[in-house]
């Protein structure tokens, strides 16, 4: 269930003294298009569950596991009966690890792990999610630490599966180059850290040692998106963070996030977030003030 929604922004009300929220959800309730800074992991236990993303409608069948990345706009439709685990951990504190940041970028906007598509890891991820549910409900000491360790184990499984599939997609010559995944992880990390700079395809391709055309193909295979779409995605994430600071104007944010003009920034932000930067800023601070007021009561 969504407890706090203003516009399209959901404020996740974490369990007391934690940065975790988990629902054993049986409600026949639809949720409008929204997004949140926390990752969301959903697995139907009984019946299906229906997700709507900007470019695709998805039916999650029993035991399908969907990772919805932070900032991804989605709506949810529930069947008349059913049950599902909905887990929302705050991954902000984990993103100091380069591999976590890159993996979330690669998984964006969402990744669905099914028995058919991910036979080698699906069973283990399901097991870990059910262990997280049990630990969350127990309230035992150090349960938050244990839950985050299991979350990281889930992400490791997804990341290594992605790396294996990437290596398998290369031709025989490329398969022998074990450093390929490391190389593109480093490139994504560089883009993540320098997304505010003027990043040119030719220059980044030169860092990889490949021609521009070869780099474009390999980069899209690794990330699932084109070079410039990836750069814009990271710029929007940075812009979102800057808009959460009260003293930053929309113009300041556009300049500091590498956009060539205010109009291009507004257009790109609306594509990714479904609202303008000004609307986002107003909604965020309205929610933030509301939460602060309630905390003071």
Tell me about this structure.
With 297 residues, this protein is of the alpha+beta class. Helices cover 51% and strands 17% of the residues. The chain has 11 helices and 11 strands. The strands form 3 sheets. It has a 5-stranded antiparallel β-sheet with strand order 3-10-5-8-11, covered by helices on one side. Strands 4-9-6-7 form a 4-stranded antiparallel β-sheet, with no helix packed on it. A two-stranded antiparallel ribbon has the order 1-2. A hairpin with a 2-residue loop joins strand 6 (49-53) and strand 7.
Q: Can you lay out the helices and strands and say which pair or pack?
A:
Blueprint: E1 5-6, E2 9-10, E3 20-25, E4 31-34, E5 40-46, E6 49-53, E7 56-60, E8 65-68, E9 74-77, E10 83-89, H1 98-107, E11 110-113, H2 122-138, H3 143-169, H4 172-175, H5 179-194, H6 201-208, H7 212-223, H8 227-243, H9 250-256, H10 262-273, H11 277-296
Antiparallel strand pairs: 1-2, 3-10, 4-9, 5-8, 5-10, 6-7, 6-9, 8-11
**Class by SSE composition:** alpha+beta
Could you describe the largest sheet, including whether it forms a barrel? 5 strands, antiparallel
Mean pLDDT: 87
Number of helices: 11
Observed structural traits:
five-stranded antiparallel sheet, four-stranded antiparallel sheet, 11 helices, single chain, disordered C terminus, alpha+beta, 17% strand
Could you provide a short overview of the structure?
The protein has helices at residues 98-107, 122-138, 143-169, 172-175, 179-194, 201-208, 212-223, 227-243, 250-256, 262-273, 277-296, and strands at residues 5-6, 9-10, 20-25, 31-34, 40-46, 49-53, 56-60, 65-68, 74-77, 83-89, 110-113. With 297 residues, it is of the alpha+beta class.
